């Protein structure tokens, strides 16, 4: 069975491109665009890996990450954060909150694939 | 502050010594020419004897100098600023007094540059703050990066060389097109936002407050157009015509001018001028003319020459102690940006609005005369039901010269970084002054 990625991102064209490259690489890609209901979505169908944008409508990606890490069942779930602001402060915050990896936009497709494979395989 | 007529104090001796050495004259020779013993001249040169006007004249003649060149050294505030400027360097040069005494014009240049650097540093910090926290800027930037991300990712799929069916290809082309339009729009908005506003005249590197301050300085703090029963102009007209103001400064200026007008209506210059010449006591004037003290204080600092106090300074702050408005007294003023000495009566007044305070403020160092300070805090704006009031404190500063002053004395400083006072309980950061100027405690927080 194909491994499942949940992409939590609200920009339609980014969703489409990232979904495409991951699907072509053999992943089953689910997408979710709303910050408020993101945690419930993860709990309902836990994926093998989450790609989480930092800036979402309704709720920040950092809050979502914190709640995920507070749940013992989700503590080990690989979460890769995406952010448009590459400041050290955001990176520190993401890593402190338990992100598995932090990637700054605009990213390269190859980089995303490499990281996703590494995180899900490890 | 010339003391040439009576006696030169402070460091006149150092200047005499420097000038004598410049002239290549032996101490004994100068002593002979002015008719004192070499050992007495030696004491004078080491600032251990005060030197009278007659002797100073004789020395000036012997060294072929103007008396003022010997008697008027740099004032203490300038020396402190020079020392602070020096302290900011990796290898601070010593003896600011000698430098200022021998090269007064160059010392003024160094001082002006140091002030300019301080202003620019504050502006850089403000701009940095703006870049980091401005919501509009960060939203536009986010939009640009989002579009760039989508375009990069999509374009690299198309350019990747792997087979794509026609539908996907068309979709991705459409997406790139749509994102590129968004990017064009958001990048244009970003560029426009970063551009210096075009409707401002002149360089507006100054903060709005500084621009307003400059306006009042240029007018010498008196605005005839707003005086009298029927003023020649309205605050809005004056602000509209004032050159070199940006929009924010213009709004602040209108607010200050409206207050000026209200003060002028309540206290016409002739009335307060007459009251002042009869009893130079702000509180007595307030009682007699039936006006609040804060208004009297503001008004006394805004009268034309000949009507009120000949020289006056003013400082206005809000409940956080931020300086809102100020008029320097002979160059003496309270620094902005939280750097002011908390011992000024202005700040004490904040703790009990309505309670009038007066004191003789004594600054450290060469500025021997005290400054008469009259301060009061009051509710500056009606706040509305259950709303927090806006408190403003006002302090009038008048020079004390000659005559006795019975106001209680109070030690104040130029702000911790430039203050030589040791063991001050109000100190919040160490002095920048070298130890030589502060005594041994220069670098210690509490001395």
From TrEMBL, chain A:
This is Two-component system response regulator. Residues 4-120 form the Response regulatory domain. The keyword Transcription does not apply. The modification 4-aspartylphosphate is found at residue 53. It comes from Limimaricola cinnabarinus. Pfam families: Response_reg. SMART domains: REC (SM00448). GO terms for biological process: phosphorelay signal transduction system. Keywords: Phosphoprotein. It comes from the Bacteria. The keyword Phosphoprotein applies.
TrEMBL record, chain B:
The keyword DNA-binding applies. Residues 16-70 form the HTH cro/C1-type domain. GO terms for molecular function: DNA binding; DNA-binding transcription factor activity. Keywords: DNA-binding, Transcription, Transcription regulation. Gene3D superfamilies: lambda repressor-like DNA-binding domains (1.10.260.40). It holds the Pfam family HTH_3. PROSITE patterns: HTH_CROC1 (PS50943). One of its GO terms (cellular component) is cytosol. This is Transcriptional regulator. The lineage of its organism: Bacteria, Pseudomonadati, Pseudomonadota, Alphaproteobacteria, Rhodobacterales.
